[in-house]
Amino acid sequence: MDVRFYEKPGCVTNKRQKALLIAAGHAVEARDLLAEPWTAGRLMAFFGALPPHQWFNRAAPAIKSGEVDPDGLDHATAMALLLADPLLIRRPLIEAGDWRCTGFDLAALDQAIGLPSVAPEGPLEGCAHGESVRVCPTPA
Fold first, then answer.
1. For residue 121, is it within any domain?
2. Catalytic residue (choose from 11, 101, 127, 136)
3. What is the residue range of 48's domain?
């Protein structure tokens, strides 16, 4: 199946996620999440019925620093923050046909598009650089 995968270029966790999709036989088209011209309507297609606090990348610098606290935000405020700073968007954003999601939920992905029975080593959600790194390295 053709899968469009919105990622932060250079993210080690996103690389593992793409490898798992490819191992399952999917054709992965990677796109730069940070360069995409997002609109509220387009993002909502990925978030579905999730509450706003689940739309956020908890490893984003603005969240780790305490500048942004996603808990308790209403839809409009949360969306305005995401559109202003795409680093805040929980990634990856994945679309395959009419199906879309945010994050890398193995069970949901397996049910929707199919995954191999063996997952690659390492985390498949969150920052692979750990808590000591405040900002993931960006490729030159």
1. no
2. 11
3. 2-112
